[in-house]
Specification:
Layout (H helix, E strand, L loop, with lengths): L15 H13 L7 E8 L1 H5 L4 E8 L4 E8 L5 E8 L8 H13 L1 H8 L9 E6 L14 E8 L15 E6 L4 E7 L38 E3 L2 E4 L2 E8 L3 E9 L2 E15 L11 E3 H4 L20 E8 L5 E23 L4 E18 L2 E10 L4 E9 L4 E2 L9 E5 L2 E4 L1 E11 L6 E10 L12 E8 L6 E2 L8 E10 L5 E9 L11 H5 L7 E5 L22 H4 L11 E11 L9 E12 L20
Antiparallel strand pairs: 1-2, 2-3, 3-4, 5-6, 6-7, 7-8, 9-10, 10-11, 11-12, 12-13, 13-14, 13-23, 15-16, 16-17, 17-18, 18-19, 19-31, 20-22, 21-22, 23-30, 24-25, 24-27, 26-29, 27-28, 28-31, 29-30
Length: about 625
């Protein structure tokens, strides 16, 4: 096989050699024409756990047009196992297609005419982002695979085009023919003359006084790595990567006991909340319509990560059928995390303190203007945290001087940023003390019986098992400290309780548009903060398998739950949803300081006492 080495474990990410072999097998079957594109090679993880390397590839023949899911068997007897026809509009958009759509616009007389009205004559300086059109397909183009373009202008090659939105120009593109079908023109709005450079020194002398801060580990890191297997401070897990989700963690164990079988950011949905003509269509499944894998950054020591770093490379299937490797796609390092636990005994005049150390596994993904970081942290007390970091450039539109901006915020001359939201649908395959788990919702409430509570200060901790799917679309309530327990169906602690992990969510926006809106109907998973289902290998993505051109709401966790399956002692899958309601600030322009959303999973009766009592005391060099 060409390319890099073979995997050493069934759950290892696909290697370039495997991707190339799978594509060669698909081409060799003789069913494809000359002009094809590929969208994703994904390992069948259920079969991989049984020792079988099977890959699903999505391929489109643009001449027919037609598309297929192809199952490819690797290993000793490689072959294409099955070709399943699918709607040719539904595969995600590749980077190659997005570039071709932009060039089709630059070649279009209709597009050039619309730009000329705005004084733009050099189309080589115009940026066009190919945007998914789900829910807004014009009836006159029924059956076509479409995209539309948001348009930006640069004054020269080094300019930040996202600072100069071209308002009112909306090209509609056929993605098979790569032809501009029409260009909507909603009226000329003056372009901003303000630049938005991001380079050092662009806004005057750099701030003085920041001295060097070096992270030094003279004895090396405390983790060990064997291929994709990692061990650190009682934790053991595997690092994975997929075309759709990017970074995945497999088989997380703490102190020899299982916690999760799988953890990943499963989908991202971003609806914009402005009816203006160059914004109202904006609603994207960034993972389901473009893929986290192809959007993954190559990380740089000392900038994206500090300290003694271990990097993992990752590979994905490019649109032309080539294996693409992202160097340093995943960063792993240790961080000091302040105090782990402390007590100062005033009577005895003695104290104990332990420093906290955490292991961070992270990746960053650029989705056109926005940048998203996913930081999974493992802690010495058994906690797992996910921090989602939002940064990059806000997606702006043009506005006239003095024009009212009711659905957004003015951030520069002739530039406004619409209010919008970011939803991150997570997937957690639970394995708390074994494969069989159940979900329990917990909250605090006042004691209702005055005879039991003569002083009026008693508060109960109420637990409610969620035993059926019909009841498993849940919402947070910070006012009652609502959270969830993932309980073992087979193990108990010394107090007689099921061993468990507690799940809390920090960042839980809700959709505010009308229920009949495209945004509300396209991504029903954003209407609740937590969903739960029993494991089914065919139910892979919270927002549906192929959201591009999907009938709004046809697939996803809300549809699976209609089966109302039992959740009592099953292989449980949780689908938490983190959400940000983003009302922009001028201070987030021209680039956005990081905003953070968090999910916390921590032991709750999993242990009989603090599991971090064995962490050694700080050495004298801490002082």
């Amino acid at each position: 096989m060409p390319g890099s080495a073979l995997p050493t474990h069934p759950l290892d990410p696909l290697t370039p050699a495997e991707i190339e072999q799978a594509v060669a097998l698909v081409r060799a079957d003789g069913l494809l024409g000359e002009r094809v594109s590929f969208w994703g090679a994904v390992l069948d993880e259920a079969r991989a756990r049984a020792g079988e390397r099977r890959v699903r590839i999505v391929v489109t023949d643009h001449e027919v047009p037609a598309a297929w899911e192809v199952d490819v068997e690797l290993g000793a007897a490689p072959r294409c196992v099955e070709w399943r026809p699918m709607d040719h509009r539904r595969p995600g958009v590749t980077s190659d297609e997005a570039r071709a759509a932009a060039q089709a616009c630059r070649n279009s007389p209709l597009f050039k005419e619309a730009l000329a009205k705005r004084g733009i004559h050099d189309v080589s300086l115009v940026m066009i982002d190919a945007e998914s059109i789900g829910g807004f397909e014009p009836a006159r183009y029924a059956g076509r695979r479409l995209t539309w373009g948001t348009v930006w202008h640069r004054t020269e090659e080094g300019d930040n085009g996202y600072a100069r939105p071209v308002q009112g120009v909306v090209p509609i593109i056929d993605m098979h023919a790569m032809e501009v079908l029409e260009v909507e023109d909603h009226g000329v709005v003056p372009l901003s003359e303000e630049a938005g450079p991001l380079e050092p020194g662009a806004y005057g002398p750099e701030r003085p006084g920041l001295r060097a801060l070096d992270v030094v580990q003279p004895d090396g890191p405390s983790f060990t790595v064997d291929g994709h297997r990692v061990e650190w401070q009682g934790w053991r897990f595997r690092v994975g990567f997929t075309h759709r989700e990017g970074l995945v963690l497999h088989d997380l164990e703490f102190l020899g006991r299982s916690v999760l079988r799988r953890a990943a950011c499963n989908e991202m949905y971003v609806p914009y909340l402005d009816p203006n003509p160059t914004q109202y269509r904006k609603n994207f499944f960034d993972w389901g319509e473009y893929g986290a894998g192809p959007l993954t950054n190559s990380l740089e020591l000392g900038c994206d990560c500090l300290g003694v770093i271990h990097y993992f490379d990752a590979s994905y299937l490019g649109g032309s059928g080539e294996a693409v490797t992202v160097r340093n796609a995943i960063c792993m390092h240790e961080e000091d995390d302040s105090v782990l636990w402390k007590h100062n005994d005033l009577r005895r005049g003695v104290g104990q303190v332990r420093r906290s150390r955490r292991l961070v596994v992270s990746s960053f993904h650029t989705v056109a203007n926005y940048d998203y970081g996913f930081y999974w942290s493992l802690h010495q007390d058994g906690r797992i945290e996910l921090e989602v970091k939002l940064t990059g450039i806000l997606s702006a539109s043009g506005t006239g001087a003095g024009e009212e901006v009711p659905y957004g915020r003015r951030v520069a001359e002739n530039v406004q940023v619409p209010t919008h939201q970011h939803y991150f649908g997570l997937r957690l395959d639970a394995a708390v003390d074994g494969p069989l788990n159940r979900l329990v919702e917990a909250h605090a409430e006042a004691e209702p019986d005055p005879e039991r509570d003569p002083y009026g200060n008693a508060v109960r901790h109420v637990r409610t098992p969620i035993l059926r799917e019909a009841d498993a679309a849940r919402d947070t309530d910070p006012g009652t400290a609502r959270h969830w327990r993932i309980e073992s169906a087979t193990a108990r602690n010394r107090y007689g309780e099921p061993t468990a992990y507690r799940l809390t969510l920090h960042g839980t926006a809700r959709p505010l548009g009308r229920p009949d809106s495209v945004m509300a109907r396209r991504a029903p998973f954003v209407h609740h903060h937590l969903w739960a289902t029993p494991f089914d290998q065919h139910e892979r993505y919270v927002g549906g398998e192929y959201p591009n051109h999907a009938e709004p709401g046809e697939d996803g966790v809300h549809a699976w739950q209609r089966r109302d399956r039992s959740l009592d002692g099953v292989e449980l899958v949780l689908w938490p949803v983190l959400g940000s309601h983003h009302y922009p600030r001028p201070e987030q322009w021209p680039v956005m300081p990081v905003d953070t959303l968090r999910m916390v999973l921590e032991p709750d009766g999993f242990f009989d006492r603090n599991p971090a009592m064995d962490v050694p005391a700080p050495q004298s060099r801490c002082h």
